[in-house]
Design brief:
By secondary structure, the chain is an alpha+beta fold. The strands form six sheets. Strands 10, 11, 12, 13, 18 and 19 form a six-stranded antiparallel β-sheet that branches. The protein has a five-stranded antiparallel β-sheet with strand order 4-5-6-7-8, with no helix packed on it.
Length: 749
């Protein structure tokens, strides 16, 4: 430690002679260190160095003692003096570098400080390393690999170095999002989920950080039910539990291709869970969007469209789902059929003879064989009967379908003729297996010979069913090389029967769940819809993905289900007035359709810092002088019109009356109409506020009607704060939904 300027330090060399002078004795020299310390109290420190044979060595001791006192103080100089005395027999030094090395060698070695890696989530692995458990990256704090990031090979158990973690970048973009569901009848909604702050949600919900992601980090999801809303509802509640852990598995920079694959894997994980659940016959279209920094990644399946809407009224389709016409060839190969833009799995009353042949699931169904044994005469007889119905020469319409049916009839005849010489018991087993309706609990239980009673505890039943399935497959082994395609189909049928019995079900819900399989589908790609996926893949879960560099002044329309049918012109025309209002835009798009359940979302992309830079309304009131809070933060002056509805559960002491709307959708619809009028007639605010607002502020005198007053950050609910502080002076904001109801807001100061 360095001493104060007032400390008096003297270091000198003194000589000492022996009392008896002989030839073997000589004069000795030693360093004499003397310090007068003035703080904290006045005292003296005196230290003597070792006896040296020559004066030069004693002078070097003086320099060491002085340097030590300057750096370490009294205790240090006493320690060094003792060390010098014990090393008095060492070879003398003659250079400044050698003197410095002596001093450094005598200094106590402090334990090196441990290096700290950037980011959060590191835990102690051992004394030398930290570990990031989700990404399985190690950081060496000391030792030979100190400062390096490592990963362990699972096979060799050896460490190898990897790149440093990604340093989060705060991109100069601001994205506001809103979604809308409209349900015109029924009790369940298809779901829209908006997660504007992924890092915060990961910390609160899953107890781990995502500090290596770029900011802003947000996720958005739309799920539109197919057949019913169960699958969509389950996916909406669980998709973040699939997404966040996958994002946490990597602390290095994400490439665009990697993030697109990650989004697709989220959809695959959701699909896998739905297929195992009681909602297996339900289905869903889905759109997932992930914003990281200034990159937007979208993955979707089913009926969907993603469209970019620019402020100059131009548009660009970013991606679109595969429709049935584009998927027709694949569906036909899987023995499906399209009728009136719908996909059906089994023939119905409208099916003609050719369609019945083409939709038959196996050769036995093609020839309409009875399960009473098989011989060549029976095969020829059935062939002639069906051939008379589907021969293309006798058809005047849809001749192409009949040609395909006749070709399939010939193929089925060959397969069955080859089975006539096979083991009769195996053929009968094959016939019964292929005819079984294994998507119903009763059909699966009949095939496997187990109990068909619905139950939520299926473990014991599945063991019994799996054993019966193995035995049934073994009975078919003799046919494996004779009719391989039919053998494979039978094996898949047995496995599907086991999965049917594995799914938990209650007696009350089973009939409704199984009835869903009879409903046709409007698409050939979706989540769920198990009966259309196994054992024949009429429907596939094959998502599409895209990435987009965020641009300012753009709305991104996320359309799922029925709203995917809206044209670019409809999207632009219906929402021209709401360019900076994502909630109002999404609501207008949903209102364009009369479907029972519709869903849409809108993302508004702007440059960061454009918040509060919106267009100013020339017809608004005079601007009030801006205030600041005690901490110096900005505050704004707001007024609003409140629309309450009967589904609100929070008591509102500031309300002047109960809302007339029965539900949130009705309140939003009325609010949208008022907002649209205000954008045309801004001076009508006071009149409309007194007429429509359910807040007591509407009764304030004169132009004070609807005034909320000065509002600062953290004083309002998050939706209100986000929308309000994005407004320019005198600008009307987006529809805002809070615990009080639906608000139309305007910033006037």
């Amino acid at each position: 430690m360095a001493r104060g300027e007032k400390d008096i330090v003297q270091v000198s060399v003194k000589a000492e002679e022996s009392d008896i002078i002989t030839e073997s004795t000589s004069q000795k020299y030693f360093a004499d260190f003397h310090a007068l310390l003035t703080k904290p109290s006045c005292r003296e420190v005196a230290v003597q160095g070792p006896r040296r044979d020559n004066k030069a060595e004693a002078i070097k001791d003086c320099e060491i003692l002085r340097k030590t006192f300057e750096n370490e103080g009294e205790l240090g100089v006493k320690r060094i003096a003792e060390s010098l005395r014990t090393k008095a027999s060492d070879a003398p030094v003659s250079t400044p570098e050698a003197l410095e090395s002596i001093y450094n060698a005598m200094r106590p070695v402090a334990a090196p400080e441990r290096l700290i890696p950037p980011g959060e989530g590191w835990v102690r692995f051992n004394d030398e390393m930290l570990w990031e458990p989700r990404s399985e990256v190690y950081f060496a704090q000391k030792g030979a690999q100190m400062g390096k990031y490592l990963m362990k090979d699972a096979k060799t158990n050896q460490f190898s170095t990897v790149d440093s973690p990604h340093q989060s970048v705060d991109a100069p973009v601001a994205v506001r999002a809103a979604g809308t569901n409209i349900l015109r009848s029924g009790s369940k909604l298809d779901r829209t989920v908006l997660l504007p702050e992924l890092k915060k949600i990961a910390r609160l919900a899953l107890k781990f950080p995502l500090s290596f992601l770029d900011s802003p980090a947000s996720a958005y999801a739309l799920f539109q039910g197919v057949r019913s809303a169960e699958a969509a509802d389950w996916c909406a509640k669980n998709f973040h539990l699939k997404l966040l852990p996958l994002l946490a598995k990597k602390i290095h920079a994400w490439k665009s291709e990697e993030l697109q694959r990650l989004m697709e894997s989220v959809l695959s994980d959701l699909d896998s869970e739905v297929l195992k659940s009681a909602a297996a016959f339900s289905g869903s279209s889905a759109v997932l969007a992930l914003l990281l920094g200034d990159r937007l990644f979208i993955s979707a399946v089913g009926q969907f469209r993603v469209v970019l809407l620019y402020d100059d009224q131009s548009s660009r389709e970013l991606m679109k789902g595969v429709d049935l016409a584009q998927d027709a060839e694949r569906i036909e190969e899987a023995k499906g059929h399209l009728r009136k833009d719908m996909l059906i799995r089994v023939p119905d009353s409208e099916s003609n003879d050719a369609e019945r042949v083409l939709m038959a699931r196996n050769p036995f169904q093609v020839l309409q064989m009875e399960p009473n044994g098989l011989d060549e005469k029976q095969v020829r007889t059935q062939y002639r009967k069906v051939a008379l119905k589907v021969h293309p020469d006798k058809q005047t319409e849809d001749a192409q379908s009949f040609k395909k049916a006749f070709a399939r009839l010939d193929g089925a005849k060959e397969v069955l003729e080859s089975l006539c010489s096979a083991d009769k018991a195996s053929v009968l087993e094959l016939h019964q297996t292929l005819q079984a309706e294994v998507h119903t609990r009763e059909g699966a239980a009949a095939l496997l010979g187990v109990d068909s009673t619905p139950t939520t505890e299926t473990e014991h039943l599945v063991e019994e069913a799996a054993k019966a399935s193995r035995m049934g497959i073994k009975k078919l082994e003799k046919l494996e090389h004779l009719v391989r395609a039919e053998y494979d189909l039978a094996v898949a049928t047995y496995k599907e029967a086991v999965e049917t019995l594995r799914r938990p079900s209650s007696k009350e819900a089973l009939a409704r769940q199984e009835a869903l399989r009879l409903q046709p589908l409007p698409m050939g790609r979706a989540l769920g819809c198990r009966d259309m996926r196994f054992p024949a893949a009429l429907v596939v879960m094959r998502p599409e993905s895209v990435s987009w560099q965020v641009q300012r002044g753009v709305r991104v329309a996320l359309l799922c289900g029925a709203t995917a049918s809206l044209t670019d012109q409809q999207l632009l025309k219906s929402s021209t007035s709401f360019k900076r209002c994502p909630k109002a835009s999404a609501l207008r798009w949903c209102q364009e359709l009369q479907s029972n359940s519709v869903v849409a979302a809108c993302l508004r992309c702007e440059a960061k810092g454009e918040e509060g830079q919106g267009a100013k309304s020339s017809g608004g009131p005079l601007a009030k002088k801006q205030k600041t809070t005690q901490g110096g933060g900005r505050s704004i002056f707001l007024r609003h019109i409140l629309f309450k509805h009967q589904q609100l559960r929070v008591l509102d002491p500031a309300a002047r009356r109960e809302g007339a709307a029965r539900g949130a959708h009705e309140a939003e619809t009325t609010a949208l109409q008022v907002l649209q009028r205000l954008l045309v007639e801004p001076n009508a605010f006071v009149k409309l506020c007194r007429e429509h607002s359910d807040c007591a502020s509407a009764e304030q005198p004169g132009t004070l009607a609807g005034h909320m007053g000065w509002v600062a950050r953290n004083e309002q609910e998050p939706p209100m704060e986000e929308a309000a502080f994005a407004l320019g002076l005198n600008e009307f904001g987006d529809l805002v939904v809070t615990s009080r109801g639906v608000h139309v807001i305007q910033r006037i100061g």
